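cron nightly-structures :: item 1 of 1
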Amino acid sequence: MTSPFVTVCVATHKRPQGLAKLLGSLASQRGAPPFEVVVVDNDREKSAEAVALQFCDKISLTYQVEPVPGIARARNRTVAASRSPYLAFIDDDEWASPEWLAALSREQNRSAADVVIGRVEVEFDAEVSEFVRHCGLFDPIHLRDGAIVPWYLTRTSNAYVQRDALPDRNEPFSTRFDLMGGEDVHLFKRMIESNARVVASASAVVFEYRPVGRANFRWILRRALRNGGTFVELKWNSMSPTMRVREGLRCGYAGGWELVRAGTVWKRDRVKSGRHIVRGAMQVGKLLYTLGMRIEEYRRYP
């Protein structure tokens, strides 16, 4: 049996239909290097087991359960269970284009990068409003093949990583982000600061489905607040507590003005208003985080 060159790492939680679509897309890959799939179910009730077993005769697949809730520890378990020199990350609400893995591997070979970040195209449920679709949180990232990716545009929803470049080969994600999220950006920022090279692949495409339950006003508000907190954790961690509060107050003031601007254009341009709301909430989120408020997005896995 050929040893896998790539492990596709999938952390999942109570999305059996999405997982089935994802695994089906992996079974249909064309031109990919030898690969295996590791599915880690972060549900102690094993809601993903039946779906995973259906694909064991189609792809090389390992299924494990991580009973302790936490996005970082679930991702760590996929990495620990892998047997390959390269890791490809994709989420359980996504599915891959037929040449996804081939494109990621091709770009890595061409650029000799430590990390390759692919493109994510969002497909919305028909009920999702234009206000939410264009609020700024779902904007596609347009970077050409081989372009350097800054840390704030990194993610594990479509990423190809050289295992030897990880700060820890088995547990690279910090579990302090387990319930809050942002563990992927934290990892890639650390890697970039240690001189890892992170580039883009415009041709490595995955698609992400957004139901109205994860694309509504309440959801985008929580995510914007959380993103503000993640920024503080990643960028202000070397500041003194006094400086963090001072910067937080400044951001809170700026966020308030963004919300005022959102209100002034609400009636004539909902899309523009939505972008002001998101920017404002991100600024307010920085203040709330400095004051001790945590948006634990993954406590309920919304």
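cron nightly-structures :: done
Residues 27 and 59 are 6 Å apart (CA to CA).
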